Structures are given as structure tokens and as C-alpha cells.
Amino acid sequence: MTAGTALVTGANRGIGRAVAAELLGRGLDVVVTARDPQDARAAAAGLGPGTRWCALDTTDADSVRRAAEAAGPLDVLVCNAGVLLDARTDPLTVPLELAERTLKVNLLGTWRVIQEFVPRMTGRGRGHVLIVSSGTTAEFGGRLFAGAPGYSLSKSALNGLTTMLAEQTEGTGVRVNAVNPGRVRTRMMPGQQQLPEEAARFIADVALLPHDGPTGRFYAEQR
């Protein structure tokens, strides 16, 4: 795939913004989204020509629907928006409201976006959905991390959702995969060494795999 349109959720900063920039540099038109319309507009302006923006709050069904209508046909959907609220806790003492908020954004928010956008993709007979996941999960040879229990469970559930959706969309021309870019220096994890731009290159490589490439896979950066 050398051209087309991609939409990235949570694209106003960090990994999402870097992925949007990388895809733009590879010749795609890019729609950047963020919960706050001012943040989305500023990110699009900073990225330059070939970039559009939409407000998209993954926890709000009406916001997601409006974004899908405004974005139009997509070739790539990168589900990146997420939160890390329960770092340095444990399963026995973590405030469950933090776990609830985490699952609401990371799992249900992503699921809501997919339910809105993927039927539009299958209707066109092509597209690639890429879910930004984590290595702190139980699937695909990983291990759940008890030091951020809500976050880890949300990402593990996203990996399970990936495999279900891949099976559901088999034969439609739409592929659904998950990607773990590794630990990245963002506002969530400021002490990491890998820069968002480095992670974005790997994510873009996976996002732009050939149209007949694998589905239901988990791609992990090896560092």
C-alpha cells in the first residue's frame, strides 16, 4: 500500500502524533483525532498539508459517529488512544474506579471506534485496522504485569478482541492486527529511551503491510 487515507486516534501527542507524521511522510492522507477539538486542530496544523482533523472521544458514541462521517473512506485505522492511570498499584489495592476508567477508554473505547469504522471498511472491501497494544499481556507469549493491573488487563482484552475481529472479518478484505511498539518515552512513561518517532516507524511498517498480508496477528518490536 503506497497511498490512501489513514485515521489515527489519540494523535495529538506522543506515539499517535508520531504515527500520523510517519504515515504522512509515506504518502498517505492522514486524519488526526483527539478528544479535544483544539488539540486535534493544532496537531493537524503542525503536521502540515495532507492532514485533516476530527474531534473524537472514544468514550462517546455520538463523537465517534460524527468522526467516522467526517473522515470518509479509510484504508488504515490506527487505534492508539489510551490511558495509563494505575501505574505502581497492584490487583489487591488498586482503586477500582481507576481500573473502570482504564477499561472504558482502552478496551471499550477502541471497540466502539471499531464498531463504527469497520463496517464502512468491509463495505468497501478493503482496509487495515491496527490496534496499538502492549507486551504487558497474557496472549502471544506475554505475561500480565501486576504493577498496572487495569492497564494490563485492558491491553490483554484488546489482543483477544483483535483475534475475534480478525475471524469475524475474514474474507471481507479487511485485516485486523495488534502491534506492540515496546516501551516508548511519552507522557505516560517519561523515563523510557525509545522515542515516539522510532516506535512510529515500526507501527507504520505494520500498518502498511500488503493488502493480502496476515490478519489476527500480534507484531512486537524486538529491541
Automatic annotation (TrEMBL):
Species: Kitasatospora kazusensis
Keyword Nucleus annotated: no
InterPro entries, per the entry: NAD(P)-bd_dom_sf (IPR036291), SDR_fam (IPR002347)
Pfam families documented for this protein: adh_short
Entry superkingdom: Bacteria
Signal sequence coordinates: none
Keyword terms: Oxidoreductase
Family: Belongs to the short-chain dehydrogenases/reductases (SDR) family.
Oxidoreductase listed as a keyword: yes
Name listed for the protein in its UniProt record: SDR family NAD(P)-dependent oxidoreductase
